[in-house]
């Protein structure tokens, strides 16, 4: 059973580390909090909220998510596009140019 202090909230947002332990804890807490719980999945490659906050637009994406859950998915797509663009533009170490 979750701590009594969680019982007073209509909705609880969980944003735990994006690793195995964090996912297990989110699933466990989510099951105990039932429909009042919203698990916020971080975008791929983002380990925790600190990582997200350090990304350009990361803080705003998280705050937008609280109003509209589609915002984080849109931000995750933006991250994937940006990461692909950087890889495409970076010739890498093995490129003689």
Give a short summary of the structure.
This protein is mostly helical and 97 residues long. It has helices spanning 20-33, 49-54, 58-67, 70-89; strands at 12-14, 37-39.
Describe the structure.
This protein has two domains: 1-39, no CATH class; 43-87, no CATH class. Helix content is 52%, strand content 6%. It is built from four helices and two strands, in the order E-H-E-H-H-H. It has helices at residues 20-33, 49-54, 58-67, 70-89; strands at residues 12-14, 37-39. Strand 1 (12-14), helix 1 and strand 2 (37-39) form a beta-alpha-beta unit. The longest helix has 20 residues, at 70-89.
Shape: globular
- SSE topology string: EHEHHH
Largest sheet, in brief, is: 2 strands, parallel
Measured as a percent range, the helix fraction is 40-55%
- Beta-strand portion reads 5-15%
Number of DSSP strand runs = 2
Spans of at least 5 consecutive residues whose pLDDT stays below 50 are 83-97
Overall number of domains: 2
Mean pLDDT: 75
Instruction: Describe the strand arrangement of the main beta sheet, using strand numbers.
Output: 1-2
Rounded to an integer, what's the Rg over CA atoms? 17 Å
Structural class: mainly alpha
First-to-last CA distance: 61 Å
Number of discrete helical segments: 4
Feature tags:
disordered C terminus; 97 residues; two-stranded parallel sheet; mainly alpha; single chain; 4 helices; 6% strand
SSE map:
Blueprint: E1 12-14, H1 20-33, E2 37-39, H2 49-54, H3 58-67, H4 70-89
Parallel strand pairs: 1-2
